[in-house]
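Re: export button greyed out
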Amino acid sequence: MNKMEWGPAMPLDNPQQRVERHTISVLVDNEPGVLARVIGLFAGRGYNIDSLTVTEVSREAGASRITIVTTGSVDIIDQIKSQLGRLVPVHGVTDLTVKGDPIERELALVKVAGKGDKRVESLRLAEAFRAKVVDATVDHFVFEITGKVSKIDTFIGLMKPLGLVEIARTGVAAISRGPEGM
Amino acid sequence: MARAMTGAEIVLQALADQGVEHIFGYPGGAVLPIYDEIFKQNGIKHFLVRHEQGATHAAEGYARSSGKVGVVLVTSGPGATNAVTGLADALMDSIPLVCITGQVGTALIGSDAFQECDTVGITRPCTKHNYLVKDVNDLARILHEAFYVAQNGRPGPVVIDIPKDVQFAKGTYIGPNKVVHKTYRPQVKGSPQAIRDAVDLIAGAKKPIFYTGGGVINSGPAASKLLREFVDTTGFPITSTLMGLGAYPASSKQWLGMLGMHGTYEANMAMHDCDVMICVGARFDDRITGRLNAFSPNSKKIHIDIDPSSISKTVRADIPIIGDCGYVLEEMLRVWRSRAPQIDKKAIKAWWTSIEGWRSRDCLRYKMRDDVIMPQYAIQRLYELTKNRDTYITTEVGQHQMWAAQFYRFDEPNHWMTSGGLGTMGYGLPAAVGVQVAHPESLVIDIAGESSVMMTMQEMSTAAQYGLPIKIFILNNEYMGMVRQWQELLHGGRYSHSYAEALPDFVKLAEAYHCVGFRAEKPDELDDMIIEMINSPKPVLFDCRVSKLANCFPMIPSGEAHNNMLFGDELANEDIELAFSKGKALV
Ligand SMILES: Cc1ncc(C[n+]2csc(CCOP(=O)(O)OP(=O)(O)O)c2C)c(N)n1
Ligand SMILES: [Mg+2]
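Workaround output, generated via the alternate export path:
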């Protein structure tokens, strides 16, 4: 017996729908607990968070911008947006993916330890990726790299065999193209 | 008008400026400054409950029956945690509450102080919004904002957590008209284009149905009036959810009764077969839709709701209209009248013929007995003997609740208070307390189950203290009937822990609470005793002994389609087994 037939066949769970990745910007009033509200909403309703960043963007207006990268079917993504919009301290919700090909950047700090050829190779690759050396001893480097998520993923992948020790990533900051704001 | 006051004074001033007359609460260390201010004034009347859950349900009953915001005041820690059930209940059923909780002093927050709990953390997922007030100068604004948020958009409960030092501190008071919310602006007016499209779709319908819910009640009496006008103008059939009963009069010919799991055959069949569904302020909850991929497969759906997240959540809307039911109905009616559309009279007549066919199935029929009281009969008699009075009904949760929805007939909005979304046993008695406070001259009856009513029985003491003559009409089947019914149908009749053993003597219990008790055991005693109950000036516990093993039908098993109903009068065991084998994992 297939699940669709007897489960409460939520179109939200619709297996026929393709899973998409969306980047959503949420402008919120910077009151205490607002991030907990957003995260609690995702946890409570079982939505995915692939990446989440938050910082104040206007001190005077007391506004913060939350950038969430999430995955789900089109129906789920629509639900996520309406649920976010329903939170009392939310000014606005914009689906940057629907607006079209947003600019997305992430920063990562990557620590690599090693000697000899491996060390030389890591530095050479870092240059090719325009990563900066922000800390070094004769035994290690810390690289700072900025770019699309995929670029950072690739860089980290390359560092693995060269003595990767640890990584710290910021999560995605994103903005739409063109002159208009959200 | 900005003045310096203490935090506790600000609370009372803000409540007064919000027009609050009654609050429900329970004192404790962290709210003593506020209780001190209550002592010093006469404008606001405080009702002392016996458990904080009772305060929240009383406030819900008060709010739902009066259209005002219900106000609750409780202390920190256990006071706040005891209030959680009522907050969750109010969130699910969209009831406007403002709940003020005391908190330990700001310097102690986070130190595991005596009676400290993370109230905003605990209540965040079960409130529409909540606040922790750290600065007395924010207090007045937050209080006024809380009332605004609780009532506007889709209503709901709001918690304001006030540390004790903030209650003592001096700060500036501002009045409600000085407060404009920074972000919250729910959309009230529906899109004119969507409204015109909806009118076109309705006008061309061959098998239309109105499906309405609690949103119509929340929108206010004007929305119910407009709904009646629109439904009567079209001549189309109408059904409603549990929460929406009373928005359209049950005495009308166009009324099909409640729909859903224990709804009528005609309502569910009409929903299944319709070609245009006009959903007004309802949310396609699983108790309504049954199996989603079989839900009303051939209809175009118009969905009017003030909450965008309710639209296309479980059932896709063809014409979504985000807005307040009252406003949208008014616009629809205006457009309808200006267009004066030609409806397909022949098709509508044929549609009514089908509906009459389903109606003639007489799905609520049950076998009368003269040796025991059938629960359905008890409610029918209660209805007949109270229908000409100004009667408000609350319920607990279980079979009796469904029988009340099926057999008590509501002609007015705000006269029916029940826990629909959360299904909270123990709701009805304290809710009746709140209703009686809002309507001191009216007859307020809690149609109860013997098990549910034990959960908040102590509020009889509240009723006695304030002379609130609520009537608790217990359909006593000595079982958690609804649980027993599911065990009978789904678990091979193994009645695991659903027998209400060692029940108290409800008549003696009533006396112990300074109230009046009655017991009816035979159908022929019922009428006289109900009349005595009505005439009693005191709170009453009425122990109505009913058939112990009666089941509530019709029923759509969980996960089944609307056209797959079970009826009480013709069930063989094999049918039951088959019907329920599929949805066993569902609730
Ligand atoms: C607080 C709470 N606990 C458990 C349940 C599960 N439950 C639903 S109905 C029911 C039995 C209710 O029994 P009673 O009040 O006697 O009503 P009856 O069904 O017999 O009319 C139970 C235990 C619930 N709804 N609420
Ligand atoms: Mg019972």
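The first helix of chain A runs from residue 3 to 6. The button fix ships in the next patch.
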